[in-house]
Amino acid sequence: MAGNVREWTRSLRKDYPYVATEGREDGKHPGPRVVRGGSYAVVPKSARCAARHTKAPELRDDRLGFRVAVKPPALKTETATAEKT
Questions:
Q1: Is the pTM of this model over 0.85?
Q2: d(CA 20, CA 30)
Q3: pLDDT along the chain (85 residues), means of 10
Q4: In the chain, what's the furthest Cα-to-Cα distance?
Q5: 5 and 39 in contact (C-beta within 8 Å)?
Q6: Cys-Cys crosslink for 46: which of 42, 52, 71, 75, Cβ 3.0 to 4.6 Å?
Q7: Alpha-carbon distance 50 to 64, whole Å?
Q8: Is the dihedral of CA 58, 38, 50, 73 positive or negative?
Q9: 3-class SS at 64?
Q10: Non-local CB neighbours of 24 within 8 Å, separated by 6+ positions
């Protein structure tokens, strides 16, 4: 993750400690979002996964990106297969 582009998250910028139930993960709330990681254009100290910065959602920059992820399909286990036979 570090060194390519900073990655957008859907988290609102709020102080720690992190409490997921306080609404910071609700994408409907307006406000600055957290970007994580470091890009090729930052100082080495910031080129790490834990680096946390705040950017306005409407900002466009060639050093910002996002990671696409999908949940893999559930794998069949030997136990589940044996129960069906």
A1: no
A2: 16
A3: 71 83 81 82 78 80 76 74 56
A4: 59
A5: yes
A6: 42
A7: 16
A8: positive
A9: strand
A10: 11, 12, 14, 18
What amino acid occupies position 20? A
List Cα–Cα distances, 31 to 40, 41, 55, in angstroms: 26, 25, 9
DSSP, res 17: S
Structure tokens at 19: 């409490």
Host H or E run for residue 78: helix 78-84
Buried b (16+ CB within 10 A) or exposed e, 26-58: eeeeeeebbbbbbbeebeeebbeeebebebeee
For the chain, what's the residue count?
A: 85
